[in-house]
Amino acid sequence: MKRYEMYLIDEQVADFFYGRERKFYNLFKEYEGSAPPKKEILEKQIDFITKPIPVLTIHSQIIRLLEGRQDFYIRQGKLVIENHRGKACLQIDQRAILLESNGYGEGENTFLDLLKKTEYNFLAIDRENGRYGWLKPLKRGLRL
């Protein structure tokens, strides 16, 4: 099973750490494996660098784009694409988006593509395989 966590990183923080995304990965990984009081400190750092996810906006955009598909349904607040090739579940919370999938990966790719089409840029983390990256490349503006 594949599992991706996605976070909405503050634009100024993302711009400052452009090219050093591993620092984000290390922070989230360290948070997962820590115990109090360090965990509370790391949680404050994560709260500082992340922005709340507009749950209803993203949820409704994805539902609108998938509502005609036969293999799409909603169960217990999770968006699901399931067919004979596999299953993908997308759970959108205020602090993170969780994508879990197994099988061929068609549902996984569909959800990732739809998230790329939103106006938001998420940092995706696959902790199990040590992979991370932006769903869309960051746009670096000219600064004077």
From TrEMBL:
<dbReference type="InterPro" id="IPR019683">
    <property type="entry name" value="SirA"/>
</dbReference>
<dbReference type="Pfam" id="PF10747">
    <property type="entry name" value="SirA"/>
</dbReference>
<protein>
    <recommendedName>
        <fullName>Sporulation inhibitor of replication protein SirA</fullName>
    </recommendedName>
</protein>
<dbReference type="InterPro" id="IPR038449">
    <property type="entry name" value="SirA_sf"/>
</dbReference>
